[in-house]
Amino acid sequence: MKCILVILLLTCTLCFIESIKSPREKNTSNRVKDKCILDGSKESKTEVSVTVSGRICLPWNSIRYRNNPFYNCYHNYCRNPDNQIQPWCIVRGKNRYVREYCDITNRKMKPSTLSLPKSDPSKQDTESSCGERHLNLITKIIGGKRSKVESQPWIAAIFKGVGFICGGTLIAPCWVLTAAHCFPGGKNTQIKKYSVYLGKNAINETNSVKEQQFVVSKLVVHEDFDYTTENYNNDIALLKIVDSNGQCAVRTDSVRTACLPPFQKRLPAGFYCEIAGYGRHQKGGFKYSRYLKQAQVRLISQNDCQNKYYSKDEVNKNMLCAADRNWEKDACQGDSGGPLVCEVNNTMFLFGIISWGKECSKKFNPGVYTKVTNYNNWISLHTGLPKYTAGSRYPQKD
After folding, report:
1. pTM summary value
2. What span, in angstroms and rounded, lies between the C-alpha atoms of 24 and 18?
3. Which phi and psi angles does 9 have, rounded to 5°?
4. 103/278 Cα distance (integer angstroms)
5. Residues paired with 342 in a beta bridge
6. Taking the first listed entry, what is the main subcellular location of this protein, grouped into a coarse class (predicted)?
7. Is the pLDDT of residue 329 over 60?
């Protein structure tokens, strides 16, 4: 009798041990996906699991480490759990697991924690409401002041993958104007790798209330920009932008359009204008500013720029020059493509695109900008927006 009891006891013990030995295997068929912390909100039916480099994402629970927050996430769809600049996933590197941003171009994908500004999508700037802002300086572009984005609400931050490359200017709800040299691939540029952010105070921070995120649906580089030389003639490009819902930029305090001045309109030498960007903040610096900064510069006459500071071969009719009175404020690497805006009748007009210069804030070497007013017809041709390029807000002489 005792033998029978012992055998029964051992059998029950073995069964109990087996039941707790591999609980995940026994529960595999009953996995509950809605417990995955990545799926807290409703996702689009179109699921993406490919990165911008074309690699296939790994399941989120692939990485084995203590207290892995994704242990219950068995899928490999792109998500944005920590509010990065766009959804990402895990891929296998050479010797370790790494993050990569996902290829969400033309995909209806809503990151689980990213929310666009709660504005009526129909409220967009028009040609008659451009150039308005809330001025708000709080403290280099070289020698400039740190600026809240509401002071430069048309500034765009252009990224390739996870890397910031250039600035730009929102000139219409669906269009950003920037520099051609930001896209060395020219017509062969893979636009799906690029993204554009509006309303950014800093390139390494995310504010889902102020910011609006877009993919690039079209890139137009000026057909006469020559990548084989460094003369920067026709250094101008257009980006057509669209968000994950197929919408363009919504008008908020942190996102507005800059006005375009009339064709071939000129301002006098000495006129004060503003430049803005996220570029290097000191001479010889290796890091970008991170924070948006702006500075005031004065326009230099074409004659002085071509004969006193540069040559006619270096600065042609499609360029203009500007500098600080004391040569202490200037654009620098990383500011390329950003705006040179000038205030006329309390309205901000885009007269220049940050293009090139010799070093940064170097004495007798002013910054050189693409002269936007030479390209009104070109912009109109490629955007189909003649009302925006007519410069109707610019004061007319009686």
Report:
1. 0.69
2. 12
3. -65, -45
4. 25
5. 349
6. secreted
7. yes
